[in-house]
TrEMBL record:
Pfam families according to UniProt: DUF389
Protein name: Putative hydrophobic protein (TIGR00271 family)
Superkingdom of the source species: Bacteria
InterPro entries per record: DUF389
Keyword Iron-sulfur: no
Record flagged with keyword Oxidoreductase: no
Spans through the membrane: 110-129, 135-156, 168-187, 207-229, 236-260, 266-290
Keywords associated with the record: Membrane, Transmembrane, Transmembrane helix
Length: 307
């Protein structure tokens, strides 16, 4: 959406770019903000460059830019746009899209906290019942990768507001989830459902608190795979990321071990949590740096819009 005085510039920009197909202009149909509506199918490889150019016209402030992924486009023009755009679609990163996704997933809100509480409770139950399957379920439910990816994104793009917001989600979210888990474990113990002392005999889930160099290596690999999945829109790979890192299970183990009076295991579990968080952020940031350099091929980047 753009004001009428900017429509010609926007249309010329889209028409001249080889990565654009199916350009449509609706005059005077936009109500809020008032103006014209311009639609175009854009090859993913060209999307980042085109969005930056449109932001350069100020359309993210005076109008609005909306992106939607198209699954299928049967057209010679679309095929020509994909062939003309540099690179491969799977390798292209749409930075504004990624910034929007990570920004949304980094917020500390009721939904994020609820998922984290449920994940920690599942982890605690898995530890108490010596059930690796339940622990894996807790890994999948845990929502912590969103803020971790946002922190990596903020560090690479120097978006400190994003780093602060995502950091708050983790710093506030985990203690609240662990406090709720503590209440649950204490209630279960008082009701005779759980016996925290059994963790000394439960060896199937010992991997949760056994921290070492391998823990950091796994966190690095998981962080790299997770960011690759986010930047290439291959979200199915994120499930594998979730079940490969010991973040939420470690938080749950800290609580159970503390209730059982096993402070050594509680300490190791806490260290496991911190090692995994740090490894994921580090690897995700490295992937972003490498992909950014490759996509822009040494061309100086303009600052991303904050719109």
């Amino acid at each position: 959406m753009c004001p009428p005085e900017r429509t010609a510039e926007a249309v010329d920009l889209l028409r001249e770019h080889p990565g654009t197909a199916h350009l449509i202009v609706h005059r005077g149909v936009a109500v809020t903000p008032e103006g014209d509506l311009v639609e175009a199918d854009v090859a993913r490889e060209a999307a980042d460059e085109i969005v930056d150019a449109l932001c350069g016209l100020g359309l993210d402030h005076s109008g609005g830019i909306t992106m939607e992924a198209l699954d299928t486009a049967l057209s010679d023009a679309a095929d020509a746009a994909e062939e003309s755009a540099p690179g491969e679609a799977a390798d292209a990163v749409v930075w504004q899209e990624l910034l929007g996704r990570t920004g949304e997933e980094s917020r500390w809100n009721a939904t994020f906290q609820a998922f984290l509480v449920i994940a920690c409770l599942l982890a605690a139950v898995g530890v108490l019942t010596d059930s690796p399957v339940t622990v894996v379920g807790a890994m999948v439910v845990g929502p912590e990768f969103g803020p971790l990816a946002a922190i990596a994104m903020g560090l690479v793009l120097r978006r400190w507001d994003l780093v602060r917001r995502a950091g708050l989600a983790l710093v506030a979210g985990f203690p609240v989830a662990m406090a709720c888990t503590l209440a649950g474990v204490l209630l279960g113990t008082a009701a005779g459902i759980f016996e925290p002392d059994v963790i000394v005999r439960n060896h199937e889930v010992d991997f949760v608190y056994q921290v070492g160099p391998a823990s950091f290596v796994v966190a690095l690999l998981a962080g790299a795979a997770g960011m690759l999945a986010m930047t290439s829109a291959k979200s199915a790979a994120l499930v594998g990321v979730f079940i490969s890192v010991t973040t939420v299970p470690a938080a749950g183990y800290v609580v159970v071990a503390a209730v059982a009076g096993r402070w050594d295991r509680a300490g190791f579990s806490l260290l496991q949590l911190l090692v995994n968080l740090a490894g994921i952020v580090l690897a995700a940031a490295i992937v972003l740096i490498l992909r950014r350099r490759k996509q822009r091929s040494g061309v100086l980047l303009r600052p991303l819009s904050r719109g």
